[in-house]
Amino acid sequence: QVQLVESGGGLVQPGGSLRLSCAVSGSTVSINAMGWYRQAPGKQREQVAVIRSGGSTNYADSVKGRFTISRDNAKNTVYLQMNSLKPEDTTVYYCKLLYGYGLVAWGQGTQVTVSS
Question: Average of pLDDT values for 21-48?
Answer without folding.
Answer: 91
